[in-house]
Design the sequence.
C-alpha cells in the first residue's frame, strides 16, 4: 500500500505505540539532472590522492617557531635536530600537526558560527525558508554542490552540509591526538580537508544570513558606507559591536528602526560583525578591523559595547571597565566570566549596567540585546552629558609626563610584533617636543598592548602612540562598499572566457585580517597596481575595511574609484569572513558555468580545473588568525595559491615548489593523450613575502597558468615582466620558463627577449620569421587540455592515462 | 665555536623576548669570525632583504661584499638599489621563502649551478621573517647561516649581537667584515 505523506503531525488510527519518522523529503531531488560525482561528502580518504598530488609538487616547508613540543604531559620534548618526542613524533610532523590544529580551530570557528546562526534562523523563519540569492544566481551554493553533492533549496537543507562539516572537523581533530598520524604529508592532507570544510561552514553561514536577513544578493553597486575612526557623530549615544556574528547586533538595528529612532543613535562596529551589520542596514558604520579594538575602547567613544564571538580581545572586559563602558557579551563562545542575565527583565539588566552594579552581563537572547543596548547607551550618554573622554590623556601634561618617563631601554621594541621603534619615537619627542615620530607608529601599531606589559616604567604606550597621531586618527574616515555576497552567474558567464583564456590577467583576492606589516598605504598601492592593470580584485573582511580607509592624493578610496563589478578592473567586496566562501565559490562557478564541468560531488576535477586554468591568487598582507589559516588552506586544496605578508612566515609552513625539478611539473594532456612536462605555473601554493614590491611581483607571477592561451600568456607575461622591472629593477629570473612560443612574448619587448633567449639560454631562433625553433619546455597547443587526475583523464579521454 | 665576548659588543638579546623556545642558540660573533668563516667557505653567498630599500648604508655594504667577490641573492626588492649600483644579483625575483626552500634541498645546484651554498650571510631583513627561515635551515640543513643584521637572531648558526641601540657600531662591524675579506 502506498500513502502519500504530507509534512506535519498526523495520527494513524488503531496504530498506538507506533512512531513513524519521516526523514528528509527528497521530493525535488530528481529535478537536479547533474549526475553525482565520485566524492560526495568526502571523508579523510576520498580526496587524499588529490592532496598528495599537490603536496608532491608544492612541497611543504617547515619553519618551527619552537624547537619543542609540549602538547601533552609526556613532554615537553626537544624535537630539534632530528630528535623525536616521547610519543615518537618528529619535528616536521609535529609542526604539520600544529598547522592542522590551527586549521581545525579556524574551521570550527566558522562552522560553529554557522550552526549557531542556522539553528536560530530556522527557529525564527522555519526550515522551509527558500534559498533565494537573487535572479542572477542559479548556482546558489557552489561549495555545497561540489563538496556535499546536494543542491540546497531551503534553510533546512543547509543542515545536511553543516552536519558533514562538523563530522569532518571532529575526525581531523581526532587525528591530532597524541599517537596518531606519523606522516607530515598526511597531516597536510588533513589540514586541507578541514580547510575545505571551512568553506562549507562559511558558505552555510553566509547563505543563511543573506536569505533570512535579506542582505544584498549579489548586487554590483551596493552602497558605500562610512568607515574609519572619525565616522561617528559624537553628539549621539554610540553603540559599538565587535565580533563576527550579526545575529546579536541586527536586533539593535531592527528595534531602533521599529521605534523610528535609528537616526538618534550611532551604531558602529569592529571586525566582521561591522561588515555584516552594514549589509543589514547601510545606516550603520564600520569603525575598523581587529586592531581597532583598543583604539576605540580607550578613546572612550562607545556608550555601550556588544561583543559576540571570534577575534575579540580576551581582555575586553578589563579594557571596558577601565574607561567605564558597559559590556554586553552575547555568544557562549566568549562569556567572559559575566553573570548570565538572559532571563532577567530588560529594565533590571539596563539598571545593573547603567548604575555600574555590573560592569558587564552575558545576555544570549538576541531580541533582548536589541532592547537593552540602546537603553543603556542612551542612559550612559545622558550621564556623561555627551562629554566623553575623547583623548587618550586628560591633559597634555599627562601625555608628556608619560613620554618623559621613557629611558629608551627598548624592552617594548623587543616585545612588539613589528619591533616598532617606540624608543626612538619617545627619545625624539623628549628632545624636540615633536610627536611626529611617535605619530608615525600609529598606522603600523596593532594596538596589541604587548609593549605596555613589557615597559618597566609602566608607560601607557598605546595611548601615547594614539595621542601622538590624534588629529589624524580621530578624523580618519573613508568609504567601504557594502558586502554584496555572491557573484552573479551572468558576471561569471561574461568573464569566464577571458579569465580562462587569460585576457583578464588574473583575480587577486585580498582577504583576511590586515594589521599592516609596513606603511598603511602599502595595501592601496599593491591593489591599485592590479586594478589599473585590469585584474579583478576581490576582497572581504578586515582587508575590505582597511582598503576603505586609505585615500589617494585626491582623497578618494579605491572603492570610490573602481566599480564593484566582478569584471576587469572591478573591486568586489563580498562581505565578512564568511563571505570568503563566495570567492572559492566563484572559482568553482567559472568551472561550472563557463566550462560546463559538473560540480556535484566532483571536487578533485574542479580543483584540478582551477589549478590549471583559473589565474586566481589569494593575498593576506598582515598577521592573521586561525580562521585565515584554514581559509587559505581551503583555497590551496582548491588549487588557488596564496601570497602572505612577512608575518605569514609564522604560519610555520608553506607550500613551495622547486621549479628546477622538471619531474615535478607535468600534466596529462587529454588532447594529445600524452603525459607532458609543463611550466611551473603556479610554482607555490603558499608563500610569505617580505615587502610590498615582492608582493606585487609574486601576485602577478602566480596568476600564470599552464592553460593560458598565447594571447593570455602574453598579457600575463607583459604584466609580470613590467612589474618586475618596475619593482625589482630587472627582468625576473624565471621568465623563459613560461615561454612556449614567440606568441607568448610581450609585443613591445619581443626582439629584446628573443635576443636574450638566444644568447643567454641557448634557444634556437629563426630570425627571419622571428620564430622560436628550439628551447621551450613544451610547445604551445591551442587544444592543450591538462589534468593531473587520472580519473578525469579517463573520463574525457575514454582510456587509461599514459605512463 | 666558542667566541669570547668582548665588552664593547652589546649582549646578544633576542629580537623578540618570546622567541626563546630554542634548543641551540646562535653563537654571537665579532666581525673577524665572520671573515674567517667566509674565507674558509667553498661556496658562500650573501642574501639581501627588503630593508635595503630603507637603509642606503646597507646597500653600500652589499655592494662592497659583491666587490669582494661574494655573490648576491637579492630578495625583497633589494635588487633594485643594487642593480642601480652595478651589482648583478644571482637571483632577484624569488622571495626568501623560496630561496630557503631551495637551500633545504641538498641536490640544488644554486642559482649559479655551482653546487649548494655552504655559508650563507644575511643582511637587511625584517627580523621576524628572517628568524623563521633561519629556523628551517637550522633544523633541516647543514648550511652555516650567519646573520649580519642589527637584531641578534637566535636561530642562526652565527649572528651579530644586538646592535639595534647602536647603529654606528653595526655599520662599523659591517665595515670591518668587508674590509677584511
Ligand atoms: S605530543 Fe609527543 S612530542 Fe609533544 S609533548 Fe607529548 S610526547 Fe612530547
Ligand atoms: S601595541 Fe603597538 S607598539 Fe605596542 S607592541 Fe603592540 S604593535 Fe607594538
Ligand atoms: S619599554 Fe618603556 S621605557 Fe623602555 S623604551 Fe619602551 S617605552 Fe621607553
Sequence:
Amino acid at each position: 500500500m502506498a500513502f502519500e505523506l504530507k509534512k506535519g503531525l498526523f495520527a494513524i488510527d488503531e496504530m498506538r505505540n507506533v512512531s513513524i519518522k519521516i526523514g528528509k523529503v527528497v521530493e525535488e531531488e530528481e529535478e537536479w539532472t547533474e549526475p553525482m560525482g565520485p566524492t560526495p561528502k568526502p571523508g579523510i580518504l576520498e580526496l587524499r590522492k588529490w592532496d598528495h598530488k599537490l603536496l608532491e609538487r608544492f612541497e611543504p616547508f617547515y619553519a618551527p617557531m619552537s624547537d619543542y613540543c609540549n602538547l601533552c604531559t609526556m613532554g615537553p620534548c626537544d624535537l630539534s635536530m632530528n630528535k623525536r618526542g616521547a610519543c615518537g613524533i618528529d619535528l616536521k610532523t609535529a609542526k604539520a600537526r600544529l598547522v592542522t590544529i590551527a586549521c581545525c580551530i579556524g574551521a570550527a570557528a566558522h562552522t560553529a558560527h554557522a550552526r549557531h546562526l542556522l539553528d536560530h534562523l530556522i527557529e525564527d523563519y522555519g526550515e522551509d525558508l527558500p534559498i533565494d540569492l537573487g535572479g542572477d544566481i542559479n548556482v546558489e551554493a557552489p561549495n555545497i554542490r561540489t563538496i556535499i553533492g546536494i543542491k540546497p533549496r531551503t534553510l533546512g537543507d543547509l543542515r545536511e552540509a553543516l552536519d558533514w562539516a562538523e563530522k569532518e572537523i571532529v575526525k581531523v581533530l581526532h587525528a591530532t591526538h597524541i599517537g596518531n598520524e606519523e606522516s607530515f604529508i598526511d597531516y597536510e592532507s588533513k589540514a586541507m580537508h578541514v580547510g575545505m570544510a571551512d568553506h562549507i561552514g562559511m558558505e552555510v553561514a553566509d547563505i543563511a544570513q543573506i536569505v533570512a536577513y535579506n542582505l544584498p544578493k549579489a548586487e554590483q553597486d551596493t552602497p558605500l558606507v562610512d568607515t574609519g575612526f572619525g565616522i561617528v557623530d559624537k553628539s549621539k549615544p554610540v553603540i559599538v559591536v565587535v565580533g563576527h556574528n550579526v545575529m546579536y547586533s541586527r536586533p539593535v538595528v531592527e528595534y531602533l528602526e521599529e521605534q523610528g529612532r535609528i537616526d538618534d543613535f550611532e551604531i558602529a562596529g569592529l571586525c566582521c560583525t561591522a561588515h555584516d551589520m552594514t549589509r543589514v542596514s547601510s545606516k550603520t558604520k564600520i569603525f575598523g578591523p581587529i586592531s581597532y579594538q583598543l583604539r576605540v575602547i580607550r578613546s572612550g567613544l562607545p556608550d555601550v559595547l556588544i561583543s559576540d564571538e571570534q577575534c575579540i580581545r580576551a581582555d575586553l572586559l578589563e579594557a571596558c571597565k577601565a574607561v567605564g563602558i558597559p559590556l554586553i557579551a552575547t555568544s557562549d563562545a566568549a562569556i567572559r566570566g559575566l553573570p548570565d542575565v538572559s532571563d532577567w527583565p530588560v529594565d533590571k539588566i539596563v539598571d545593573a549596567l547603567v548604575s555600574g552594579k555590573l560592569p558587564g552581563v552575558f545576555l544570549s537572547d538576541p531580541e533582548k540585546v536589541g532592547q537593552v543596548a540602546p537603553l543603556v547607551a542612551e542612559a550612559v550618554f545622558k550621564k556623561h552629558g555627551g562629554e566623553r573622554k575623547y583623548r587618550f590623556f586628560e591633559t597634555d601634561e599627562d601625555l608628556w609626563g608619560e613620554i618623559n618617563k621613557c629611558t629608551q631601554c627598548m624592552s617594548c621594541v623587543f616585545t612588539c610584533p613589528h619591533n616598532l621603534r617606540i624608543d626612538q619615537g619617545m627619545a625624539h619627542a623628549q628632545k624636540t617636543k615633536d610627536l611626529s615620530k611617535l605619530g608615525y607608529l600609529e598606522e603600523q601599531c596593532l594596538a596589541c598592548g604587548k609593549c605596555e606589559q613589557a615597559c618597566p616604567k609602566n608607560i601607557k604606550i598605546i595611548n601615547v602612540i594614539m595621542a601622538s597621531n590624534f588629529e589624524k586618527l580621530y578624523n580618519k574616515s573613508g568609504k567601504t562598499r557594502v558586502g554584496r555576497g555572491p557573484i552573479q552567474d551572468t558576471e561569471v558567464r561574461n568573464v569566464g572566457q577571458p579569465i580562462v583564456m587569460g585576457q583578464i590577467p588574473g583575480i587577486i583576492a585580498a582577504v583576511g585580517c590586515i594589521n599592516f606589516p609596513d606603511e598603511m598605504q602599502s595595501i592601496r598601492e599593491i591593489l591599485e597596481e592590479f586594478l589599473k592593470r585590469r585584474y579583478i580584485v576581490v576582497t572581504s573582511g578586515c582587508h575590505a575595511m582597511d582598503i576603505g580607509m586609505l585615500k589617494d592624493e585626491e582623497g578618494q578610496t579605491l572603492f570610490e574609484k573602481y566599480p564593484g563589478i566582478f569584471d576587469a578592473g572591478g573591486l568586489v567586496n563580498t562581505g565578512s569572513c564568511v563571505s570568503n566562501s563566495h570567492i572559492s565559490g566563484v572559482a568553482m562557478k567559472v568551472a561550472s558555468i563557463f566550462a560546463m564541468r559538473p560540480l556535484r560531488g566532483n571536487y578533485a576535477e574542479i580543483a584540478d580545473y582551477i589549478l590549471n586554468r583559473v589565474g586566481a591568487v589569494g593575498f593576506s598582507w598582515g598577521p592573521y588568525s586561525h580562521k585565515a589559516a584554514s581559509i587559505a588552506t581551503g583555497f590551496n586544496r582548491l588549487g588557488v595559491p596564496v601570497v602572505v605578508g612577512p608575518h605569514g612566515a609564522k604560519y610555520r609552513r608553506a607550500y613551495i615548489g622547486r621549479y628546477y625539478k622538471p619531474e615535478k611539473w607535468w600534466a596529462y594532456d587529454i588532447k594529445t593523450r600524452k603525459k607532458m612536462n609543463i611550466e611551473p605555473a603556479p610554482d607555490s601554493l603558499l608563500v610569505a613575502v617580505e615587502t610590498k614590491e615582492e608582493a606585487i611581483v609574486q601576485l602577478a607571477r602566480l596568476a600564470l597558468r599552464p592553460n593560458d592561451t598565447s594571447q593570455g600568456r602574453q598579457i600575463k607575461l607583459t604584466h609580470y615582466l613590467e612589474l618586475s622591472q618596475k619593482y625589482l629593477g630587472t627582468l625576473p629570473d624565471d621568465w623563459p620558463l613560461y615561454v612556449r612560443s614567440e606568441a607568448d612574448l610581450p609585443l613591445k619587448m619581443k626582439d629584446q627577449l628573443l635576443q636574450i633567449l638566444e644568447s643567454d639560454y641557448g634557444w634556437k631562433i629563426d630570425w627571419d620569421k622571428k620564430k622560436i625553433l628550439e628551447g621551450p619546455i613544451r610547445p604551445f597547443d591551442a587544444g592543450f587540455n591538462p589534468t593531473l587526475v587520472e580519473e578525469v583523464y579517463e573520463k574525457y579521454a575514454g582510456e587509461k592515462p599514459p605512463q | 665555536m666558542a667566541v669570547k665576548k668582548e665588552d664593547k659588543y652589546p649582549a646578544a638579546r633576542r629580537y623578540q623576548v618570546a622567541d626563546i623556545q630554542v634548543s641551540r642558540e646562535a653563537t654571537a660573533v665579532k666581525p673577524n669570525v665572520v671573515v674567517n668563516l667566509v674565507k674558509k667557505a667553498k661556496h658562500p653567498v650573501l642574501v639581501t632583504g627588503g630593508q635595503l630599500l630603507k637603509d642606503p648604508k646597507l646597500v653600500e655594504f652589499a655592494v662592497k661584499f659583491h666587490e669582494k667577490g661574494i655573490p648576491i641573492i637579492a630578495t625583497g626588492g633589494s635588487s633594485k638599489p643594487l642593480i642601480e649600483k652595478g651589482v648583478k644579483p644571482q637571483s632577484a625575483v624569488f622571495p626568501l621563502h623560496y630561496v630557503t626552500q631551495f637551500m633545504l634541498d641538498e641536490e640544488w645546484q644554486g642559482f649559479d649551478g655551482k653546487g649548494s651554498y655552504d655559508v650563507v650571510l644575511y643582511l637587511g631583513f625584517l627580523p621576524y621573517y628572517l628568524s623563521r627561515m633561519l629556523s628551517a635551515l637550522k633544523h633541516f640543513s647543514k648550511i652555516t647561516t650567519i646573520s649580519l643584521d642589527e637584531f641578534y637572531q637566535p636561530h642562526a648558526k652565527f649572528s651579530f649581537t644586538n646592535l639595534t641601540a647602536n647603529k654606528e657600531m653595526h655599520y662599523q662591524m659591517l665595515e670591518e667584515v668587508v674590509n677584511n675579506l
Observations:
- Residues 1-6, 18-23 of chain A have pLDDT under 50 and may be disordered.
- Residues A 406-412, 422-423, 426, 454-455, 457, 459, 461 surround iron/sulfur cluster (ligand 3) (CB under 6 Å).
